[in-house]
Amino acid sequence: MMAMTVIRSINMAAEAMPRLTRFSLQAPKLVEVEFADGRVFKLSAEFLRINSPAVDGKIRSIGGEKVISGRRHVGIMSAEPVGNYGVRLNFDDLHKTGIYSWDYFYHLGSNKFTLMRSYVKTLKKYSLSRDPRGKK
Questions:
Q1: Measured between alpha carbons, how far is 52 from 96 in angstroms, rounded to an integer?
Q2: HSE-up of residue 99 (Cα within 13 Å, Cβ side)
Q3: What per-residue confidence (pLDDT) applies to 12?
Q4: 88 CB contacts (<8 Å, ≥6 apart)?
Q5: Which residues lie below 8 Å from residue 94, measured CB to CB, with a gap of 6+?
Q6: Is the Cβ–Cβ distance between 86 and 99 less than 8 Å?
Q7: Which of 27, 67, 74, 84 has its CA at a distance of 20 to 30 angstroms from the CA of residue 95?
Q8: pLDDT tens track of the chain, all 136 residues?
Q9: 8 Å CB contact between 69 and 62
Q10: Range 111-116, long-range pairs (CB < 8 A, 24+ positions)
Q11: Given phi > 0 = left and psi -120 to 50 = alpha, else beta, which region is 70?
Q12: The CA-based dihedral angle spanning residues 26, 60, 107, 111, taken in that order and rounded to the nearest 10 degrees
């Protein structure tokens, strides 16, 4: 009985996710996504890079915490469709292994300010910067 409840709630959550209606790469600095519920999110290259879904997307582990820094000026070179569920973004720092699903774009857009605030707080905690080394 419990398993059916869990499956039902997972299915309801999946159905509740709005459908992507528009994807626009405004290289090198921005991706804009629009969803069927009318929400439009403008996501910077830096924000997308630091929130890469790829396992190797994070550069440093400090105290067990995964931290990436120095990506303020990173750019997106291209976006390659992956099936009908997302894209692979190719960044000019040669990171290209993250596949961003439409659901993940919605999550990032919906939580943009909280995620960015947490990122900046983590950088400050470890005396790191959004700027590349030597450009503070």
A1: 9
A2: 7
A3: 47
A4: 79, 80, 82, 96, 97, 98, 99, 100
A5: none
A6: yes
A7: 84
A8: 555 544 554 444 555 789 999 999 999 999 999 999 999 999 999 999 999 998 664 456 676 677 889 999 999 999 999 999 999 999 999 999 889 999 999 999 999 999 999 999 999 999 999 999 865 5
A9: no
A10: 112/41, 112/43, 112/47, 115/47, 115/51, 116/47
A11: left
A12: -90
CB-side exposure of 9: number of CA atoms within 13 Å? 5
β-sheet bridge partners, residue 66 = 61
| Confidence (pTM) | 0.82
| 31, 79 Cβ separation under 8 angstroms | yes
Length of the chain: 136
